[in-house]
Amino acid sequence: GSGVLNGSWGVTRGGPGDGTGGPRVPPGCLGLLSGGSGDLSSSPPRDPRTPKVLLAPPPCAPPTPPPFLLTLVPSAPAHLERRLAVRDTWGGPWRRSGTPPGRTVFVLGVPAGAEGQRRLLRESRQHGDILQGDFADSYANLTRKTLLLLRWARACCAGARFLLKADDDAFVDAPAVATYLAAWPAAPPRLYLGRVHWGVAPNRDPRSRHHVPERVFAGSRYPPYCSGTAYVLSRQAAGAVLAAGRGAPLALPEDVWVGLGARGAGVAP
């Protein structure tokens, strides 16, 4: 298989020369996939809220070179058609000459029933691009997906220079994004790029699924943050957001959570 389910490994622990012929899995990735935080000595401090991994794609490891742009797509178990559309279009193998290499991974929680989990396991085995955390797949857990995708990228695909987070109902010209980033002569080392929201007030309506009570965020305005529809983080910015986001409540909207982590790290969108 391509992932982990009930402790069953789908990635090779060894590497070239050890008789397995598989990729060399980074130690921090082994820690994350076996229930740890995925920390290395050079990683951000451990966030104990990092979900346990149930299914995981193969890590970015030798002999395969790392992607220049790693695209991470939060999805829901029922959104198979959306994932197929992404694979067949902007998230699939890039065929443009001269485009930097890319890779796409889908991030999900746990479906409501056992049959849904069996379908996800089959999909993971077929496509090798499913990252699943041990939490209920719900709107309330979107920020947990973001925490997991950033932690997996840091621990298991640390060579990727840029991360693109995009919703599964968005259409992003990912090859064009990669080409733009590669051609940027002086891209900031800690880049946080997207459509910036300024001066947004928290939703205080308890009937709304966007409700954020004052106990979660007491301020009258969020700091500037990039829309969760799609945004780019450089490798350095993603690590800084992870480190600074440890104190931010996961009950916040996921894009606001990233924005708070960015503000805490001194990374401006």
Brief descriptors of the model:
269 residues, alpha/beta, Spore Coat Polysaccharide Biosynthesis Protein SpsA, Chain A, seven-stranded mixed sheet, 7 helices, 7 strands, 29% helix, globular, disordered N terminus
Please summarize what this structure is.
By secondary structure, this protein is α/β, with parallel strands linked by helices. Helix content is 29%, strand content 17%.
Structure, described:
The protein has 269 residues and is α/β, with parallel strands linked by helices. It has a single domain (27-265), classed as Spore Coat Polysaccharide Biosynthesis Protein SpsA, Chain A. Helices cover 29% and strands 17% of the residues. It has seven helices and seven strands; from the N terminus they run H-E-E-H-E-H-E-H-E-H-E-E-H-H. The chain has helices spanning 27-33, 80-88, 114-127, 142-156, 174-183, 235-244, 254-265, and strands at residues 53-55, 69-74, 102-110, 130-136, 162-166, 192-197, 225-234. It has a seven-stranded mixed β-sheet with strand order 1-4-3-2-5-7-6, with helices on both faces. Helix 4 (142-156) packs across helix 6. The longest helix has 15 residues, at 142-156. It is globular and about 50 Å long. The termini are far apart. Residues 1-20 and 36-44 have low confidence and may be disordered.
Mean pLDDT: 86
CATH architecture: Alpha-Beta Complex
First and last CA, distance: 39 Å
Provide the CATH top-level class.
Answer: Alpha Beta
Strand percentage lies at: 15-25%
Number of separate structural domains: 1
Q: Please state how the strands of the largest beta sheet are arranged side by side.
A: 1-4-3-2-5-7-6
Q: Which structural class fits the helix and strand makeup?
A: alpha/beta
Number of helices: 7
Q: Residue share in helices?
A: 25-40%
Main sheet record = 7 strands, mixed
Report the strand count: 7
Query: Rg from C-alpha positions?
Result: 18 Å
Query: Residue ranges: pLDDT <50 for 5 or more in a row?
Result: 1-20, 36-44
